[in-house]
Amino acid sequence: MSRLFSQTFSCSHCGAPQEMGIVASINADRRPDLREAVLDDRYQRGECSACGKGYRVEPDLTYLDVGRGQWILVRPASHLAEWAPTEALAAAAFDRAHGAGAPDEAQEAGLQPRLAFGWPAFREKLLCAAHGLDDVALELAKLAVMRSARDLPLDDALELRLSAVAADTLTLTWTMAGGDLAVEQLTLPRALLDGLAHDVAWAPARAELTAGPYVDLNRLLVPADEAA
After folding, report:
1. Within 10 Å of residue 20's Cβ, how many Cβ atoms?
2. Closest CA to 226 of 90, 80, 87
3. Distance in angstroms (rounded) separating the CA atoms of residues 189 and 217
4. What radius of gyration, in Å, describes the C-alpha atoms of the chain?
5. N or C: which end of the chain has fewer CB within 10 A?
6. What ranges in the chain are assigned the alpha helix state H?
7. pTM as predicted
8. Does residue 228 register a pLDDT over 50?
């Protein structure tokens, strides 16, 4: 089931106290409306009752979609530096809930565990499932872009995230980690992912990306010894 609770917090603009219903877990099979709200980029947004400015509460939840084979632990983007220990927690939580450590009736064959930090990374995983994209190949495509591009945004707080999918193309956006600031977009052929998925030259990077549930380019950019 999907679990929600009320949370009080300060407006990020003026500091006035605000209250919002926050989700602790989403079961997309039972609440497809919550999945759609994440895909539409409108979930957990609000407007300050004092200053009128918009805000968004960072995600901190588990997501389950048995129909699409997804289990995702989603943490705030501000916790990215802790990806290594958080990945261990995610793996253990999945094992207890749906893996070998779960009761027989709770185990789900074909369910794929993942870890994401922030709304853009979370939404990206849902887009991959919605359009039948290999999320590992997507991360390899990002790596290929970074290796070949001459000019890249220099701000370390920017991330390259999938933002739209068309029949033959993918739109990726350089966006502020966990936020709404979009800096630059680029378009890639969708067929690129199929090529990368089967290219043996990319096998070492693919193996590193799939060493745990944190399947994300940041796994290669933020070494585990620095994230611990």
Report:
1. 17
2. 80
3. 19
4. 18
5. N
6. 32-39, 83-97, 119-130, 135-148, 191-198, 203-209, 218-221, 224-227
7. 0.91
8. no
User: What pLDDT is stored for residue 1 in this prediction?
Assistant: 58
How far apart (Å, rounded) are the C-alpha atoms in residues 81 and 57?
19
Query: 211 and 189 in contact (C-beta within 8 Å)?
Result: no
Quick count: other Cβ atoms within 10 Å of Cβ 135?
22
**Residues 124, 161: contact at Cβ < 8 Å?**
yes
Find the mean pLDDT for residues 158-186.
Answer: 89
CA 226 distance to own-chain centroid: 21
Confidence of residue 2 (pLDDT cuts 50, 70, 90): low
Cα–Cα–Cα angle for 178, 174, 133, rounded to 5 degrees = 85
Residue 106 CB coordination number (10 Å): 11
Measured at the alpha carbon of residue 94, what is the angle toward residues 93 and 98, in degrees to the nearest 5?
125
